[in-house]
Amino acid sequence: MLVIGTVGLLYLKWQSDPVPAERRMARMDVAFLLALLLTSVTGLLLLALRETPDAAHEADDPTSTLGWTEPTKSVTGVAEKRAEARMKGYVGEACPECANFTLVRNGTCLKCETCGATTGCS
Ligand SMILES: [Zn+2]
Prior knowledge:
122 residues, mainly alpha, 3 strands, rod-shaped, binds zinc ion
């Protein structure tokens, strides 16, 4: 709200500039308004950044360093499993039933060689 108000005031200032004698005053006003705008914008940015769950999580949880590294590891692990499964002739997708990377193409759907579950059709 403050940002909109400040911009509006700035705009009005620009529109009603005409008298040369008031130029100096107007310029000072504009400078003040710009400073106000900057303050409100940075304040909003700070507020927005502070409200992001990641930032809050990082600030509160001392084990956040672990939380950040673990997903990266698991992602590469999945990628490796997927690549390995593809080399063995599987499609490289995880089975929704047993989570093994042993799905093979079975017509239009996928079939798990470990538990026999199928995806899409039954
Ligand atoms: Zn399975």
